[in-house]
Amino acid sequence: MGKGGQTNGGENGEKQNGNKDLIILRTHIHCEGCASDIIKSLRGFEGVEDVRVVSDEHKVLVKGKHADPLQVLERVRAKCPNKHVELISPKLKPPAPPKKLEEDENEPLVMIIVIQVFIHCENCAQETKTCIERMKGVQMVTVDVKKKQMTVVGAVEPQYLVDYLHKRAGKHVTVVKHEYQDKEKAKKRLAKQYKNGNTNPQGDGEKKKEEKVKDIYYHYPPQYEPDHLYPCLLLNDENPEACIIM
């Protein structure tokens, strides 16, 4: 169990500043009762061997080889919630900045697409907006009823948006303009993928679809089967089933 005491001079505190096992806290100490509360809060705490309060300097000296400075600080703050307590020594290293996450090349880029669509009333505009918001990848949709235009923000391809509205809402849609939201990011990805031979900035999704299409095989019937003869082979000498003119 740790011992406790109170000193009124700064000499004792200055001598102990060079001790590596010493934890120094600063807080406002205005009376003996205040100092007693701090000592009681750390009495018997894990790793704490001795606690001294220097009233003149408003410091708390905590001695302990195995005492954790942060745990001691939090202990005093928890037991004396009305006091502002800060750690003077030892000075802790600032936390390392979070590592910058590498960009996922397969993550689709966000686009801003402006489309021209026939909207004759607010109800029609709301229905079309709701239809677009159900699309996967759409983040935001704004409507301009006067210009009969809608602005769609999200990871959506313009042609897919046109086909989707035509199929789901029966709307004839024209793309007015489209651009990437983060132009620098899109430019870097395009440059990198052009070097790798991939011209699709939206990742490898479309490339994989093309590879799947290449794996499709079409099987035709045998060339010389009687039920599946081509017209040009009916009079061919190489066809054993061809007509023979004597």
UniProtKB/TrEMBL annotation:
Keyword vocabulary terms for this entry: Lipoprotein, Metal-binding, Methylation, Prenylation
Entry annotated with the keyword Nucleotide-binding? no
Q: Which positions fall inside the HMA domain?
A: 20-88, 110-174
Entry-linked Gene3D superfamilies: 3.30.70.100
In Gene Ontology terms, what is one molecular function of this protein? Answer: metal ion binding
The portions of this protein that span the membrane are none
CDD domains, per the entry: HMA (cd00371)
Q: Which PROSITE patterns match?
A: HMA_2 (PS50846)
Show the segment(s) annotated as Disordered.
Answer: 184-211
Against Pfam families, the record matches this protein to: HMA (PF00403)
Similarity comment: family membership? Belongs to the HIPP family.
Name recorded for this polypeptide: HMA domain-containing protein
Q: Which organism is it from?
A: Kalanchoe fedtschenkoi (Lavender scallops)
